[in-house]
Amino acid sequence: MIRYVESREGENMKVNQILQLPLELINDVNCEEEIRDVYIGDLLSVVMAHGKEGALWLTVQKHLNVVAVAELLDFAGIVFVQGSYPDEETIQKATELQIPLLVSSKDAFALAKDLIMLGL
Amino acid sequence: MQEIAMTILDIIQNSLRAQAMQIQLWIKDSIKDNMIHIEICDNGCGMSLETLQQVTNPFFTTRTTRSIGLGIPLFKESVEATGGSFQIDSRLQKGTKIIGEYVKNHIDTPPMGNLVDTMITCIQFDAKVNYCFHYQNDDWAFDMNTEDVKALLDDVPINQPEIILWLKDYIKEGMHQ
Q: CA A15 to CA A33: how far, in whole Å?
């Protein structure tokens, strides 16, 4: 059962508040970052052009380049959806840069619905 | 990148930043061989072996404005996602050569995009830089060398608006568009 969180004006949900959803944090980072937007996309150049600062990014791409894009745009975190799982090098770099990495077996649409239900 | 032509433009920007005066773009787009071969060769400042080994890592860049360089890593990733191959070779003070070969019928291979615009954008950017352009597919080929064009122009800069318009039509025609 997912608890619905009332979104209060001027206050954004933090990454650690979405951990109650069916997803798992896979690196050891501080999850105090605020989620200011959600972006879904797999073509890195398009994400680079349109992703906003503070966004939680849902993608199936798991290359090291994903971490570079997240760092460049100052994303709140990356969720690898549909069972996509990054390799050790990618996880290490994200940990070094303090970017939360999460994995979910759900697809982006199903997870987006959960995020909306949660009040994002 | 959504289109191969945009990727090429991005890579050529690297060549220009490396002070290249001569840039060669060689494209083979073949259904018969099931591949799209992209080759960009420049006579810019080149890279040391040490730099070369790091250049496909997105967290490596020579720019000081930001710490992440994604041009080459994205090209490599895009090519390899189709089962194709990527190669980069460089020598200090000599230049750099980049080859990307997409598997043409792979579902993730991006569309070619507008090569005419890519060429024109490059030529317009700096009249002093020379481009040697070669395109071929299974049926025809097109070659253009800006040095030949400049020889006809005498002292008129190649990036004058009228010349660019004429060149655009010329390349379009050559590319059977």
A: 6
Tell me what pLDDT residue A8 has.
54
What is the token pair recorded at A56?
């939680």
User: When comparing pLDDT for A11 and A82, which is higher?
Assistant: A82
CATH of the domain at B115: 3.30.565
Domain ranges of chain A: 32-117
Note whether B70 contacts A46, CB cutoff 8 Å. Answer: no
Size of interface A-B (CB pairs under 8 A): 31
Domain that holds residue B152: 4-174
- Global pTM reads 0.84
Q: Is A79 on the interface with B (CB under 8 A)?
A: no
3-class DSSP assignment, residue A106: coil
Please name the member of A43, A48, A68 whose beta carbon is closest to the beta carbon of B59: A68
Angstroms from B77 CA to nearest CA on chain A: 8
Of B126, B116, B130, which Cα lies nearest the Cα of B167? Answer: B116
Residue B173 identity? E
How far off is chain A from B152, nearest CA to CA, in Å? 39
The dihedral through the CA atoms of A92, A94, A95, A100 has a sign that is: negative
The ipTM assigned to this model is: 0.70
CATH number of A32-117: 3.40.1390.20
**Domains identified in chain B, total number:** 1
